[in-house]
Amino acid sequence: MAATLLYLHGFNSSPRSIKARLMGEHLARHRPDIRLVCPQLAATPAAAWSQIAAICDGLDGPFGVAGSSLGGFWATRVAELYGVRAVVINPAVNPHILLGDWLGEQLNPYTGERYVLTSGHMAELAALRVDAPSCLERIWLLQQQGDEVLDYREALDYYRFARVCIQKGGDHSFIGFEHYCAQIIRFLQL
Q1: Which InterPro entries match (predicted)?
Q2: In this structure, what DSSP letter does residue 101 have?
Q3: Rounded distance, CA 162 to CA 164, Å?
Q4: What is the pLDDT of residues 89-110, one digit of tens each?
Q5: E-only strand ranges, the chain
Q6: For 18-66, how does the pLDDT look when each residue is reduced to its tens digit (9 = 90+)?
């Protein structure tokens, strides 16, 4: 039974994001025995979670999850509910607050999808948040202090009992991500 890495992209992103592509290239080159599942997530929270849960429910064999930004939020929920290991990269800890500034019409630059982000979607995110994760020993936080989108201190507080790698500088894209691909796979025990 092949192991699977579930990679979850962030808000208004896609499987064509730089980190998703770097992980796919790493697996193809060094770990072709691991299957990469990197879905185009639905734009709205309840639909995205429904999609993620259906994927997790359908996986046979061992799997781990990695997610960036909003994908880190989802990866934490997967770790909590499915008992797997997760790597969260510059994760959104409180997207129901953060994305409150983004309400209104949205355009996903990767897919061209247009949709409207509403306060109802913020309520969905709040309801889906893992308020007190019991899975922190199975989570690795990769965080750069120079993240211009998220306050890195929120992640340090929320994931304080997880394995933590904090770097000065960087940005929301997590500069140098390609140097972590092999370590991510080892942490996920795939």
Answers
A1: AB_hydrolase_fold, UPF0227/Esterase_YqiA
A2: G
A3: 6
A4: 999 999 999 999 999 999 999 9
A5: 3-8, 34-37, 63-68, 86-89, 104-107, 114-117, 139-144, 163-167
A6: 999 999 999 999 999 999 999 999 999 999 999 999 999 999 999 999 9
